[in-house]
Amino acid sequence: MSRLRYMALSCLLLITGGLYAQQNEITNIKHALPTITDSMKYVDALNRLSACYIPCQLDSSGIYATAANTIATSIGYEKGQRNALRGLGRYYSLRPHRYLSFLFYGKALEASRTAGDSAGVVAALMNIGNYYQYQGNHPAAQYYVSKALKVAWDQHLDSLRAWVLINYYMINAADTSVLPVAQKALQQAVALTSQYNDYLGSLYVKLFLANETLRAGNVPAAEAQLKGVIATADHQGLNYIAMYACTQLAGYLIWQRRPDSLQYQQRSLSYAVAGGYTGLMLPVITTLFNWYQQQQDSLRAASYSQLALQVMQQQQEDIQEGEADYLSYVFGDELMDSLRMQYQLQHAKLQQGKSNNYFWYYQVIIITAIAILLAILLLYFVRAYRLSHMNAASMAVLREEIRKGNKALQESDDFKNKLISMIAHDFRTPLHNIVNITGFIEEEALTVTDAADMILQVETSAAATLTVFEEILAWIRTQLSGFVYRPGIFLLSDMIDTTVNTLHHLLAEKDIQVQKEIPDAITVNADYEMLQFIHRNFLHNAIKFSPKHSTITVTAIREKEWLQVAFKDAGTGIDTTVLSRLFSWNSQAEQQERPGKGAGVALIICKDFIEKMGGTISANNNQDRGSTFYYRLPEAKKMVLRK
Questions:
Q1: How does pLDDT run across 51-63, given as a tens digit for each residue?
Q2: The whole model's pTM is what?
Q3: Contact 504/460 with Cβ under 8 angstroms?
Q4: Distance CA 388, CA 380 (A)
Q5: Domain ranges of the chain
Q6: Which residues form a coiled coil (predicted)?
Q7: 488 strand-pairing partners
């Protein structure tokens, strides 16, 4: 559904209170209006006129809704004020002034809930749902129309429920997941409008049934249904329904690429001008202007250009005048104006009739006192608002401090977990090897020579483990206050040599050679222990998955201002399902799918470390065999080395 069609459709659904009106009803109410002496009945008549004019003549509807709101506010007639608020919401939705319409509907909803007006609550919820659908917020639209449907069902408001069902269909017709439910809602609406003899409601439902006929593939029948609606609406003077039906039919014809679509676009615009709905037709006006420009019919193109200019000027005036009207309503300016007018009238009468001086004098004093009291109340509410705003600001600051404290605690907890995982990863393998070697010796399954060699291996492994432990312990001492990145500039080749020496016993077991392709002068700016942890992890994984008698290649290349270091092995490579989430840990199940015990946590820590140093980390499978793990860091620029 195009944006223009949806805009017209959502506006049409706001007319629920006025579709029962006919021209003779409007005439009867207008004739009876001067004879009504009761203020409340007068407001009810104005609201009824506003609702009757909505599908016929928009400007008249707005005039009567504004008058009803003014009088109802001045006399404190809450029901009349609620109906006037809904009338103003309908009026501004068709201008269209969506935001101001939403404000009036929200005020009407609040007032209806306070007064226990179920029908008013249903209407306001339904209208707010249409507002959100037009704004593109489909979940919010579904929420409000579903609430409206529930209230109408619980309160047995069947005649109003028909309109809520139509709204439900309109909001969900384009959602294939709930389309069957929406179609069922439309059929229920057909039955209810027929049950309550809602002639115009049934006419309105035919617009949606035409959509379903078109969806079923019967294009001629859908066109015939819409032409019947246009003829009936034109005869009844329902300019809005005729305008929308012409727009919908034009959409069908445009879809079929038929030339007579232009005729129905022009007819829809004619109905819009007659009813004052031109604010909704700017896209149609633009289409017609472009068409006649292409046909070089400058006279007609100029007329549509002038009409578009009038629409844009009207929208600008609505933005200025409409918002001022609403703010005046909120802050009670209408009541103050009424009191000032009463004061002026009373003062004029005092000047004319001196015989009633004392009476009018006291009247003026009372009115003035009321005005002063209202002013004091207004000042009180302004001050209360400011205090509330200040308290809200203080609470926001406090919440931010709490959030920062929680974040610091979380970071501290994450840091401790990472330290434990890092220590477990770096010491598991060497300690396991030491235990295995000593186990062989205790079982006396070795010769003296083999035992001597293994004792030397134990000594080497223990020394390497002790060295790693002392390095990590020194680094941990610098991190006791939290996770702090302390970079320095180091020779990359020396760091790789240290890593190779640490894991020498694993290399010797599988007779694996480490080939360095690193220029001696290349330096890296990083935290030493964080980077060495990554080196040890990359080399350890490469050894683990490399076949015996193979070679592991460590390379370093410069790319602009970056240094890329890669560890390439000749193993079996990494499964593609594991490769995509190698450096993330979303669940325990994923962790168990990773090759090698403990590798997943270590790689996650590697990614965290490299990002804290301002770099990136990744892995991929080689074209021939094996895989490559690499990281990128900013290249060190100052040649000041730290040991």
A1: 888 888 988 988 9
A2: 0.49
A3: yes
A4: 12
A5: 12-93, 485-634
A6: none
A7: 526
